[in-house]
Design brief:
Number of helices of chain A: 20
Radius of gyration of chain B: 21 Å
Order of helices and strands of chain A: EHHEEHHHHHHHHHHHHHHHHHH
Mean pLDDT of chain B: 86
Structural class of chain B: mainly alpha
Low-confidence stretches of chain B: 1-7
Helix content of chain A: over 70%
Largest sheet of chain B: 3 strands, mixed
Largest interface: A-B, 32 and 30 residues
Helix content of chain B: over 70%
Number of domains of chain A: 1
Structural class of chain A: mainly alpha
Low-confidence stretches of chain A: none
Shape of chain A: globular
Oligomer: heterodimer
Strand order of the largest sheet of chain A: 1-2-3
Strand order of the largest sheet of chain B: 1-2-3
Number of strands of chain B: 3
Distance between the termini of chain B: 12 Å
Strand content of chain A: under 5%
Chain lengths: 501, 499
């Protein structure tokens, strides 16, 4: 267990995982919709507050998993309850904990029926999502991964829009297909590792290249669907458009990150040789996603679809950064995951707020509303600029690092990503042009209320904090990213020795 | 190397730079809050402009003495910061931007009220924000800060171009945005990232010779980056990325004056020349032979745009193509890589600004007073609007480069620079351009003063534009003359740049 620093004191990770679950259980017995909303708010805020010590007490000098907890769970199968976080998962855990209260706040009046059930779904989602980022045992990871599926399905299928059944089943089938492949890979690894499910123990083993490639491909399919990478993305626009606001936010801000988190946590350290072999293909797939996402977003008339396709492009930048396998690229990719969570989550919240008022997501129905809802439009402008990576906003720093990592490895692939940056500006300015200017406006449209401003304001704060002083976010990942690259390089060196006569 | 160390010890860390930057920002905020009281709103505009100018003015004499102001705001990544700097190069641009803002603020008050334009609060807010961006560009200490403010100028001037909110305005504004953001994201972003990857820094050095590249940098890549620089800052109007500028003519005239004389186009050339001199450096440009070929390339823009200007009957369109042509003078001068060439190019930033803003102010005054846009309709108008057309004539002389107006100083310096560099082709470009300038400006003035009034159109009731328009335009034309007779002020600044 030398990879895990066991937490001797208060079990902070378990608290984070189980607090929402307990909250959901208590919620079942609470009467009155307002009380239920307030309770869900309290639980998510408490979880967010409990997550702060993770950052303040995080040891940046070690690449080991911290705040570790290790309990034997099913001894006969050697399944353990192992939790721990490192510099890669820390920010994702914090992102999850901080986005959830905003989801509850954003659904306050949006959800009018079955409020209790809705909040229960959200809280169970939070448990599962936090657990996925902390799990260090493959069986535990898989259970939590699958546990997200049901509440997310329900969120879309019950509280969704007109085509909710189609969208939710499509989401379910795609994700399930991916996770079945992942299960096969997990079992293969379990058998090769003398019956251990410990994720860190599986890293750094010199598996044969063919085995690595099969395992990589199985993982890759699961995660590529989740990211989603072109051409596995077709479930995403449907799910986003039909999901309620909070569902879209959870989906965009956190669920998509699980795909790229999977690449970082499993593909790179467990199958480094396969990663090195297949990286060029993944890089070109990323370019395809960036360009395809950009062009498709440019053609949308539905605001949610526009943002959904922009996600395909943005996540393409993340995978681009990961598979160049250098420090700047990886750090940029991780930062970009956080940025996308903040910015795209915020954009979905914005669209949701207008949908509550106008019951439309069409750009044309919101043209020229700047004169009617100046506060809303200010927020929308800030998040749109962030989305197109305007300098001094969060996305610029991430994109800059990814491109710096890319240009130092391969100028052709890096250059091929540039049209994606242009397209991002094009579709966002197109949206802004309509919303700000082009059109008659909607007299009588109410501007944002205090609750909605409180929902969006923290995200604005993070947009500029990361945009202007990203060091607090980058410094926590240096050691872990360095260690991860060391694992890949070691495999490369080992392969060279093995190939030498 | 001596100059580097001498300058190195003369760096003053001063929050004055931050104050200067924040004045237009707060100004725009106050303007946006006082929309219901037009007089208060305009007072805020003018007050911010005056305060900004005074702050900038206090920095002139230390800078002339070789000092550099410096202020770091944010550290983004190692080697990437948001840092402000005021050196002689910055001061040229900061001075014209802040002083012409005062003139433009008065003028636009007269223009916008005279035509009873809508959304004047938005207009004035964005106007101030554009100046905020322009001052930021002037005071940038590194490529990232430059890029940041360059983009801010693009975004903040969009509502100004789209001001009329009709189909024509949207078309022009769309073209404006497409050209400027495509080139910025397509050329500047990769240029900046590649420079960062190659050198680990984006900071400008304190001299124009060394640049920031190592001596063993890959020549092919550096050449590519140089081309990216030339096209990436598309606000500089270099062909083939100049189409946004005539398209942006749909904007109200004070904006055209701001766009074509101060904020936008000068931001473009300022950035281009700043990066050429302070990122690539004259040594590297010389050793890779980037100077003269670029001079010929922009020489094409100079001649071609002048020829197109001849064909335009719409006064603002003619002025727009004249701007495209004149901007390339600045780049041409710098690309000659000789001291006189660089001085001539840089001083033209100021000389062109005062003359061109006068010309646009005149065009706007004619529109407000007589509702005429086309040159063919203006014959005989000089007799009813003598001050306007006199100012126009003086500014046109500056464009042509005739003494005693400021443009002559530019042309003189450029001609010496051309002879120093020994490229006769450039000499021909300058001569051809001078003749073409005469060709498209002289008829305007001649027809206005000596042309016959068309029958059936007695020009009754037409008189000079309101004083708030007439005074700024006369002042600007007088300054053009002063800069021609006493060129030393800006020449001293550019001499500090060339060292």
């Amino acid at each position: 267990m030398d990879f895990l620093i066991i937490n001797e004191g208060f079990p902070i990770l378990s608290t984070l995982v189980f607090l929402p679950l307990i909250g959901a259980f208590v919620l079942m017995f609470l009467p009155g919709e307002n009380l239920q909303r307030i309770w869900a708010m309290l639980i998510t805020v408490a979880t967010a507050l409990f997550s702060i010590p993770l950052y303040t007490r995080f040891d940046m000098t070690t690449a080991k998993y911290q705040f570790g907890e290790h309990v034997s769970w099913i001894p006969s199968l050697n399944i353990n309850y192992t939790l721990g976080i490192d510099g890669i998962s820390l920010l994702l855990v914090l992102l999850t904990a901080f986005i959830m209260p905003l989801c509850v706040l954003g659904s306050w009046t949006y959800i009018e029926k079955r409020v209790k059930e809705f909040m229960i779904c959200l809280l169970i989602m939070e448990t599962a999502m936090l657990g996925v980022f902390m799990a260090l045992d493959f069986a535990l990871f898989y259970i939590l991964w699958e546990a997200m599926l049901i509440p997310m399905y329900l969120l879309i299928a019950i509280w969704g829009g007109a085509r909710k059944i189609y969208a939710s089943i499509k989401f379910f089938l795609y994700t399930l297909a991916g996770s079945v492949m992942m299960l096969v890979a997990i079992i293969a690894l379990y058998l090769t590792n003398d019956g251990s499910f410990s994720i860190p123990m599986m890293m750094g083993q010199d598996y044969p290249l063919t085995f690595q490639i099969w395992v990589f491909l199985a993982f890759f399919l699961a995660f590529a669907i989740k990211v989603p990478m072109f051409p596995f993305h077709t479930w995403l626009p449907a799910a986003h458009v039909e999901a309620p606001t909070a569902g879209s936010v959870v989906l965009a801000s956190i669920l998509l990150k699980m795909g790229t988190y999977g690449f970082l946590r499993f593909c790179l350290p467990i199958t480094p040789l396969a990663t090195l072999t297949l990286a060029p293909i993944v890089l070109w797939m990323s370019i395809a996603a960036i360009i395809y996402g950009g062009f498709t977003a440019l053609a949308q008339s539905d605001m949610k679809k526009l943002i959904a396709y922009s996600s395909v492009g943005h996540m393409g930048f993340v995978t681009l950064g990961i598979f160049f396998l250098n420090q700047q690229g990886l750090e940029g990719a991780i930062l970009q995951m956080i940025n996308h969570g903040i910015t795209t989550g915020a954009l979905f919240l914005c669209v949701g707020m207008m949908y509550e008022r106008t019951h439309s997501r069409e750009i044309a129905d919101h043209s020229g509303i700047a004169q009617n809802v100046p506060i809303f439009v200010t927020f929308l402008t800030i998040f749109s600029l962030s989305s197109l990576a305007f300098p001094a906003t969060n996305s610029f720093v991430g994109e800059f690092l990814v491109l710096a990592g890319a240009f130092s490895e391969n100028k052709i692939i890096a250059g091929a990503a540039i049209p994606g940056a242009i397209l991002a500006a094009a579709y966002m300015f197109r949206l802004l042009q309509y919303v700000l200017f082009k059109g008659p406006g909607r007299p009588g449209l109410k501007d944002l209320n205090v609750r909605e401003i409180v929902t969006l304001a923290p995200l604005v704060f993070f947009v500029f904090w990361i945009g202007l002083a990203p060091e607090p976010f980058l410094e926590v990942m240096h050691t872990s990213v360095d260690y991860l690259l060391g694992q890949v390089d070691m495999a490369k060196a080992g392969a060279h020795i093995a190939m030498a006569p | 190397m001596e100059t580097v160390t001498a300058l190195g010890s003369d760096i003053i860390t001063s929050s004055k730079l931050l104050v200067a930057l924040l004045v237009p920002l707060f100004g725009s905020f106050l303007v946006s809050l006082s929309g219901k009281k037009p007089n208060v709103r305009e007072a805020w505009s003018i007050a911010s402009a005056v305060i900004l100018f005074l702050i900038v003015a206090t920095m002139v004499s230390p800078v002339l003495a070789g000092k550099t102001f410096y202020y770091q705001l944010f550290k983004i990544l190692p080697g990437v910061t948001i840092t402000l700097r005021a050196d002689a190069f910055s001061m040229i641009f900061a001075l014209i931007a802040s002083s012409l803002w005062i003139a433009a603020a008065f003028y636009s008050m007269g223009y916008m009220r005279g035509l009873k334009e809508h959304a004047q609060t938005r207009f004035n807010t964005c106007f101030a924000l554009a100046i905020f961006g322009a001052i930021g560009v002037a005071f940038s200490d590194n490529l990232f800060t430059l890029y940041l403010f360059y983009e801010i100028v693009s975004v903040c001037t969009y509502p100004l171009v789209a001001h009329h909110q009709d189909e024509e305005a949207y078309e022009g504004a769309k073209k404006y945005m497409v050209y400027l953001t495509t080139t910025a994201k397509g050329f500047l972003l990769p240029m900046m990232v590649l420079i960062y990857v190659m050198t680990g820094s984006l900071d400008f050095p304190h001299n124009i010779q060394t640049g920031i590249f190592q001596t063993d940098a890959n020549g092919a890549i550096v050449t590519m980056l140089f081309i990216f620089c030339l096209f990436g800052f598309a606000k500089n109007g270099v062909m083939p990325f100049h189409h946004w500028l005539p398209g942006a003519m749909v904007a109200p005239t004070p904006v055209s004056a701001l766009l074509h004389a101060v904020a936008v186009v000068k931001v473009g050339v300022f950035c281009t020349t700043r990066v050429m001199l302070y990122v690539f450096g004259t040594d590297l440009m010389g050793s890779l032979n980037l100077g003269i070929p670029t001079a010929y390339f922009v020489g094409f823009t100079i001649v071609m745009a002048s020829v197109i200007a001849l064909t335009k009957d719409n006064l603002k369109a003619r002025l727009a193509y004249s701007t495209v042509s004149q901007l390339s003078y600045i780049i041409l001068g710098v690309c000659l890589l000789t001291p006189h060439g660089i001085q001539g190019g840089l001083v033209h930033i100021a000389n062109h600004a005062f003359a061109k803003i006068t010309l646009f102010f005149c065009a706007g005054a004619i529109y407000v007073a007589a509702h005429k846009k086309n040159i063919s309709e203006m014959s005989g108008l000089g007799k009813t609007m003598p001050f306007t057309f006199a100012a126009f004539a003086i500014a046109a002389l500056s464009m042509i480069g005739a003494p005693p107006v400021a443009g002559f100083v530019t042309k003189w310096q450029l001609l010496i620079g051309t002879l120093e560099s020994g490229s006769l082709g450039i000499l021909l470009v300058l001569l051809a351009s001078t003749l073409l300038n005469v060709g498209y400006f002289a008829p305007v003035v001649y027809k206005a003063f000596f042309g016959e009034r068309p029958a059936g159109e007695p020009y009754e009731g037409i008189k000079e534009a309101p004083m708030s328009m007439l005074v700024p335009l006369c002042c600007c034309s007088i300054i053009s003359v002063i800069l021609g007779v006493y060129p030393n002020f800006f020449m001293n600044l550019v001499k500090v740049v060339t060292g």
